[in-house]
Amino acid sequence: MDFHNILDEYSPPKKCGKSHCKTLVPASYQYKQCQSCRERQQHLTQQHRARQKVSEAVRVLTGLKHAREDDEALEERQPKRVRPHGNTDSDEGEDFGIAVRKSILTR
User: Fold this and answer.
1) Disulfide engineering: 64 pairs with which of 17, 35, 69, 76, CB 3.0-4.6 Å?
2) Cα separation of 82 and 29, whole Å?
3) Distance between CA atoms of 14 and 38, rounded to whole angstroms?
4) In terms of Cα–Cα distance, which of 20, 16, 22 is closest to 35?
């Protein structure tokens, strides 16, 4: 009789590895996830790969390097927001810093 089999028979069941799933699986179960979560993940992975394959085929046919590289998408895209406090070349930021220091020192 194998020692590991005895422990597995009497070990308490464990929860499925997916955080949203509360299914209990035997301690001796080969996988971390229950069968239904494994099947769902397999289906989602197959769908994802199929979408990637179609997307890659479209990129090859159109000659685009990335999916969003068409001209309309570039024109519609808003420029990145510049944060005023992150810019050290700005005189406004320096004046504000000096004003804060002066107000602290005059207290």
Assistant:
1) 69
2) 53
3) 16
4) 16
